Amino acid sequence: IVLTGGEDRLWKTWGFPDGNILLTGEGHTDWLSGCCFRPSGTQLVTSSGDTTVRIWDLSRRGCILTLRGHSRAVHGCSWHSCGDFVASASMDGTSKIWDVNSERCRYTLRGHEASVNSIEFLPFSSTALTSSADKTLSLWDVRTVSRL
């Protein structure tokens, strides 16, 4: 199964090798910039130009949580390997670590001088890697909200 998102504001799951669409989700009001399966495979996260991050439940075929807090388009998103946290990277120059269980922003990572274009957790750690339009990469300890 492959997951995609695009300018049509939809995410889609595709079965391979046939290439047929298995599921489609709609709800964002602008382009999708990122999408990622939860490690358990039961949910996914999407990021969008509409400034939101959404959590989708595949069995319910719908959005179960909309995370708001960025002031500009969100360029990317990822799940932590434990499945309890989602990270987002935004044009507003920040990244956020969201606690899915409490449905709130746990930490805001500040320090880049331009748009944050991507964020990824290092597997099984509290470290996140961000890339920015300021031409830098940063490693963060998300427990202390500090650069490494």
UniProtKB/TrEMBL annotation:
Name a GO CC annotation attached to this entry: axonemal central apparatus
Recorded name of the encoding gene: Spag16
User: Entry's InterPro entries?
Assistant: WD-F-box_domain-protein (IPR050995), WD40/YVTN_repeat-like_dom_sf (IPR015943), WD40_PAC1 (IPR020472), WD40_repeat_CS (IPR019775), WD40_repeat_dom_sf (IPR036322), WD40_rpt (IPR001680)
Q: Kindly provide the name given to this protein in its UniProt entry.
A: SPG16 protein
GO BP terms: axoneme assembly
Source organism per UniProt: Pycnonotus jocosus (Red-whiskered bulbul)
PANTHER family registered for this protein in UniProt:
SPERM-ASSOCIATED ANTIGEN 16 PROTEIN, WD40 REPEAT PF20
Q: Give one Pfam family.
A: WD40
Which keywords fit this entry according to its UniProt record? Repeat, WD repeat
Q: Where are the WD repeats?
A: 25-66, 67-108, 109-148
Report which superkingdom the organism of origin falls in: Eukaryota
